[in-house]
Protein 1
Amino acid sequence: MPDLVVGSWPTLAPAALRGLRSDARGMARAEIASMKSGSTRQDTAESGRQIAALVGALGDADVEVRRVAAHSLGQLEDRRAVPGLITALHDSDADVRRQAAWSLGQLEDRRAVAPLGAALTDADPQLRQTAAWALGQLEDPSAAPALAAALKDGDVEVRRKAAWALGQLELHVAPQALVDALTDRDADVRRTAGWALSQMEDPRAVPALRAMLADSDAGARRNAINALSQIRDSSAMQALIGAMQSKDAEVRRAAARALGER
Amino acid sequence: MTRLGIALSALVVAGGAGFAVLAQGGQRIHIVISRIHVNAHVHITPAIRKNGRPGPDSAQVATFLAGLGRADPVVCEMAVDQIGNSWGPWGGGSRVGSLSDESGANQAVRNSFGGNVADARAVPVLAAVMGDPSPCVRRAAAQLLGRSDAPVALTTLRAALDASDARVRETAFMGVGYAQDAASYDAIVRGLRDREVAVARMAAWGLGEMQDERSVPALIDALRSPDTGLRRTSSWALGHIQDHRAVEPLMELLRDADAGVRMTAVHSLGEIQDARATSSIVPLLQDADVTVRLEAAHTLGEIQDKAAVTGLVRALHDADAEVRQQAAHSLGEIQDRGAVDGLVGALHDANADVRSQAAHSLGEIQDARAGEPLAAALADVNADVRSQAAHSLGEIGDPSTVAALAAASKDGNTEVRRQVIHALGQIQGGGSTDALVAAMKDADPEIRREAARALGQKD
C-alpha cells in the first residue's frame, strides 16, 4: 500500500496522520501543563477568555492579526471557535479566508460542512483546495455532493484534493463523478480517485477500474488493482483474472496476490 | 527538467564548471539564464570562473598597478583589499547602488577586478612588480597572480620562490598561498627556514592557508623561532589547520613574552577546541594585556569546558567592559549553574552591554534562581537589557515571573513588548494566558499579532 494517497498532501499535513485524535492530544498536553505549573486542573475560564480574545481578533482592523488569529484558532482545536471561523470564510482578505478553512479542517466540527461546501465554489482556487482538504478532514458524508461537483473543477489541485476527500468520507455508494474521474487528464487525480474507490467497495465502479488497468501511469494501475481487490464481487474477480494477462508484471503480481487472498 | 532546462544545461556545461553547479537546482536556472545573457553581450571572451565574471585585461592591470604606485599608502591598501570583491550578482550590467555620476566605463573596469586575470599578457606586467618598493603593489601582484586563471601565472610564481631578491620571494610565497598551490608545498615548507625571516613568515602563512596536516611538525618547530612575527604566524597557521598535535606546543607559547604571540596562541587553541588547554588559558584571564584577556575569555567559551567557570566568573569584574561582556557571553556558552550567582551580580554592572549579555546568558543556563533578578531587570533603564531579560524569562519559564512580565507588556519600547509577549507564550500557567489576552488590546498591531501567535501555542 505504499503509494496510497496519504503521502500526497505535504502542505496541509492532515491531523489524522499525527496519530492521536485531537481532543485526546489536547487532554494530554493540558495534563502536562498542569503538572508543570503544579495546579491540578486546567483553568477553563482562562481558556474561554483565550478563545474569545482570538475570535475577537478575527475582526481586528489589522489583516495580519486576523490571519494569525485564524491560524492560532486552528492550532488550539477548540470548537468554541467554529462560528467565528465560519464568518471568517467571508473575510475581505484571501489569506484569512484560506486560513479559516484550514483551521475548520483542524477543528473537525460538523457545523462547518455546509459553509466549506459553499467555499468549494469560491473564485479563489486556493480557498477551494483548502476547503476540499478540510471536508476530507471532517469526514462527514453530507459533503459528498459538493465534493463530487468539485471533481469537475478547472484547477487540478482542487480535483486532487476533492478525490482524496471523497475517499475519506466512508461512502458506500461511489459518486458517478468519482468513477468519471478515473479518466481525468491528470494522473494524480486518476490515482487518487482509484484509491478513493477502494475505500467504497462499490461494484458499479468495476468496469471503469478494469479500464484503468491499462492506464499509462503505473501508480494509477496499482491503485486500480488495489481497488478491485477490495471489492467482494464476481465482476471484480473476473477483472482480476483478466489482469493476470496484463503486460505490466506488477499488475499481474498484484492480481495474483489479490486472487490468492480470496 | 523541461526541454528548456536541458538546453540550458548544455549551454551551461559549455560555459564552465562554475555554471554546472548553479544549474543543479531548478531555482537557480534563472540566475544562469541571466548570466549567460550577460556574457553573450560582453565582448570579452576569456575563461570564466566561479563568479562568472571575466577579469581585467593586461592594459587594465598595467593602469591599475601604475595607479596603486602613485596612491597614498592607505588608499592603496584599501584598493588592494577590494580585489576580487564585487557588488553581488548585480556587478555585471545594472547600476544598482552606484553613484549617479560614475561613468559606465569606469564601472565596467571596476567590475572586471571582481573577476580573475585570465589574460596571459598581464602576467609579465604583474611579475615585473613582485619586487616593487611599495608593499601594497606587491600584495596586488601576489593576489592577482595567485588567483589568476592563466597557467603561466602559477609557473611564474613557482619560479620566483627561489628568486635572489628576498622581496620577490616574499611576494611569490604570498601568491602561491593565495593559489593554495599543492605543487608548491615542498618549497613552502623549505621556505620556513628561508634566510630572510620575512619570507619564512610568509611561508608559514601560506601553510596555514593550505591547511595541509603534513606541515604541522614543521610549523611546531617554527614556534621556537627567535622571531616574534614567525611565532605569531606559525601559531595562527596551526590554529587554522586545527590539528590536535599542536595543542601542547601552543600551550607552551601562552607564556611567551610577546602579547601578540600569546593572543594568537590562545586564539588557535580555541580553533582546535581541546579541553587540555583550559587550565593553561584560565590564568591569561588576568594577563596584563587586554587583547589577551579578551581572547582568553572568548576562547574559553569556544572550548566550553566547565573547569573555566570560576575563572570566567572572576573575569566578570575585569576593569575592561568588553572583557566582562565576553566573560558573560562565554558563561552562557558553557551553561553551568555555577555561573548563576556571578551573572546575577553582572545584571547590576555599570555597562549596559554587560548587563544585557548577563541577562541573555542567564536564559541559556535556565536556572530558576535567575527568575527574580531577571524580573527586576525588566525595569532596567536600558531597553536592550529589558528585552534580553524578557527573552530569558521565557527560556526559564517560571510562572512566578508572569506578574512582572504582564507589567512589562506595557513597556514603552516595542521590541521589549514583543519579547515580553513571546516570553508569556513560553511560560505555562501563572496567568500567562490572561496576560496575553490583555495584550490583544495593545494599540500596536505588531504586538497584537505576536500575542495572537503566542495564544495559538497555549493549550
Protein 2
Amino acid sequence: MTDNLIPIDYSKFARRNISRSLLINLLINTLIAVILVAIGFGRGFVVSLIYSQCIGMSIFCANLAAIPLFKLATRPLHQIIVIVAAVIIGAGVGSFLGTVANGFDPILFFREFPPFFGQVVLLGLLFGSLISYIFISVGKISDEKTRRLEAEKNALEAELKLLQSQIEPHFLFNTLTNVISLTDSAPGKARAMLEAFTAFLRASFLTARDRTVPLHRELEVVKNYLDVLTLRIGDRLHYRIEVPDDLREFPVPPLLIQPLVENAVKHGLEPSKAGGTVLVRAVREQDRVRITVADSGRGINEKGGGQGIGLENIRKRLQLAYGDRGRLTIEDNMPAGVLVTIEMPL
Amino acid sequence: MKKIRAIIADDEKALRDHLRTKLAALWPDLDVLGEAGDGEEALRIIREKRPDVAFLDIRMPVRSGLDVARDAAGPSLFVFVTAFDKYAIEAFENAAIDYLLKPVTDDRLKTTIKRLKERLDSPSSFPDVAAALEKLAGIRQAPDRLQWIKARHKGGVRLIPVGDILYFRAADKYTVVRTRDAEYLISTPIKELEDGLDPARFWRMHRSAIVNAKAVHAVGPGTAGTLTVTFRDIEDRLSVSRAYANLFKQM
C-alpha cells in the first residue's frame, strides 16, 4: 500500500478552514472567468463570472455536504467516489444556477445550445477537479504533517523514557548501600564495586547521548552492569557475552540491550534462589544481525506483569530506527528462563 | 531487662552484615537470632523462632518481604527495608508501618528503634500490617489479568505481550492470535481468553472474536447492518455482530 492511499482526514481539515477555503474558492472562480475571457471563450466577462461563481460555489457546497459521507468512507477508493460524485452533482447544479442567474431560459437554452451546455459541464468538471484537488492536497499535507509530528513525539517520548529508565533506582541505591557497608569490613571489595559502578555510569551516560553506538560500546554497559551485580550477589549470577569481531562496530540504538539484561536479572534470576546465567550473543545472518539475551531464571508467568513497559519502549525504538525490519521477540528459553531476540537489518 | 529478639532478611549478605553491625551499635539489647537470604527462609525462621522484630528486605528471591509479613501472621513487628519503592513507602506512611531506606543511616535507624521500643511496650499499638499490605497489593497489580500469551512457534514457545495483539479469532479447534507481523495458533478458547483479558482494552466483537480496542483504526458499515472493523497496521477486516455493536458505535 502506498502512502497516498491512506484515508485522509479531510473532514477535520475542511471544517477548520472553511472561511479560508471559501475565499480561495471565490478567487479561483474569478480567475477562471478572467482566463475564459482572455482566451475568447464564452459570452463576455459578466456571463463567465456568473457561471464560474455558480459552478465553483455549488461544487464547494457539494463537497461540504459530502463531509458526513466522507467520515463513513474508510477506504481511499470510497473517498474518491464521494469526491467525484460531489463534483458531478455540484457542476450540474452550478450550471443550471448559472444559466438561470444569467437570465437565460434554461430549457430553451440547453435545447438551443447543446455544444455550449456541454462546454459548461466540461468546465464545471474541470473546475471541480481543480478545487477538490486543492482541498485534498492541502488536507493531505496537514495529514502528513500530523503523522510526522506524531512520529517525532513518539521518538521524544521513547528518548525520555530511555533517559528515565537508564539507571534503575533499586540498582543505584542497593549498590551504594553495598559500597557503604563494605567500606569498613572489606575496603578492597568496596573499591572494586565502586570502580565497576563508576564504569557502568560512565558507559551508560556516554552511550545514551548518541543516536547510535557501536555494538561493543553498548555491550560495555552491559558488562559493567553485570560486573557490579556479580560483585553484589556473588555466585548466584554468571554471565557470558559473545560478539564476533566483525560485529563490534555495528551501530545500534543506545541502551537497547542493557534493559533486556536488566529484565533478565530482575525478573528471571533475582527472584530465583539458585540464580542462573545470562548469555548475551550477537550473530550475523545473511541480511541482518540478531542479538539474543537468554537467561536460565524463573521464566515468565502468563499473568506476571512488570516487563511489558520496558519491552514496549524497546520495540518502539526499534521500529523508529528500522521500521518493520527491526523486531523484538520473546520466547521461553530451553530448559528454563526467557530468550529475548532483537533483529536488525545489516 | 528482657532481650528483644530479631531477625534480618536480605538477599545480599553485605547488606545484612551492615544492618546487623549498625543495630549492634545502636541497640545493644537487641539479639539478632537469625538471618535469611530469601523470603522462604525468612518465613521459616519467623515461624520457628517467633522473633519480636523482623527486618525484611522487600525484594527478595522466592517470596518478597511483603509476602513474608502477610504469610507469617505471627506476633512480630515488621520493619521493611527497601532501596526504592514509591508505592510501598506511601502505603507504609499511611499505615504508620516502620520502614528503612537503603542505605540505612544512623539517625533514621535511631528513630525506628525508638518507635519499635515504644510499640513493644504496648502491643496494642502494633500497626495493622495485614490491612495495609492488602491495600498495597491492590494498587500494585491488576487482578489476575493475562499479560502474556504463550504460543508455539517454530518449535519454540513464543511469548506475546497482550498489548501487541490486534485480535483473537476462533478457527476450528484453535484460536488465531494476530499481531502486527504474525499469526499464531493457540488452543485456549475465546471464552476463556475473554475472562483473562482486561475488558477495558479487549472487546468482544463477535461470538468468535475479541479485538484490541487500541488497534482499531476505524469502524464502518458492513454487510446486512453489521459493523466492520479495520486496523491501523494490517489489511484484515473483521465484522462486529449486532449483539456487541454498541461499544463499537461509540468509537
